[in-house]
Amino acid sequence: MTKVQKYLSTDGTIRISTVISTDLANEAFRYLEASPLAKVLTSRALTAAVLMASQLKEGLSLSLHFQGEGPVKSIFAAATYDGSARAYCENRGAELPEGVTKIGAGLGRGALEVALQQPHDRQPHVGAVELLSGEIGDDVAYYLGQSQQIPSIVALAAIPLDDGMEVAGGYILELMPGYTDDTVRKLEALSEMTGVLTERIQQGATASELIDVYLMNFKFEEIEHPHEIHYRCGCNVDRVERSILLLGPTTLDDMIASEEDSEVRCEFCGKLYTLATDELIRLRQTLPTIPLN
What we know:
Layout: E1 5-9, E2 14-20, H1 22-28, H2 36-53, E3 61-68, E4 74-80, E5 84-89, E6 110-117, E7 125-130, H3 137-147, E8 152-160, E9 165-175, H4 181-191, H5 197-202, H6 212-217, E10 220-223, E11 230-231, H7 237-245, H8 249-257, E12 262-265, E13 272-275, H9 277-284
């Protein structure tokens, strides 16, 4: 059972959300092959989305869309208050250019769009900022500061394996109205003492231990978050069949004539759906017959 842990300072000026998201990141790559670069950036984005969504209200959701000029091209991550999340990387095989070591170059120059969706809104509220570094954490912090006027510290960690992820996790610390300059100076000093996040998770640190330096130097109350985090793509057979129907009768006729099973892979989670010829015939029968000339 994995939940986001949330804390609010007793004076109401600091809130923190923290999570170990290794299992969630592994589920994101359960059916997908991806380069280490794509895994790290996508896992960071997924963790950030979950942390941000946990501070919303019941029924709300948000998405992060990173669009850059780098080899990864774009990353999309979405999460809901109830803990469900999903992510997509446009170029999962992306590698850094030769001689480049900064992982943020995977995205490079570009923009981050954050969309907040409320239950009864036809269109989400969208805010956008330029990418500050492509490192995900820096960009999310920049968005919070520029678009939401919330000074923050965003720390995200991810280490890839050949198959899946070794670790993933992080925290977001946000300053609420009423904070003082002394609070800012103290937090900046403490942030230098948190250690290397990836190493701490590798060594078995819990979500709360990732932020222990803040918890020990300010008075906090833990805020119970009622939901577990889980990966939910939303794909299913019905959606796959609807996508097949969009190909039109001519393409469906060609697929049926080949007498071979058709495979459709979900772009988000990588799950493979196979439709036999008789299933294609059933779908074809729901479409109009092409008139003969």
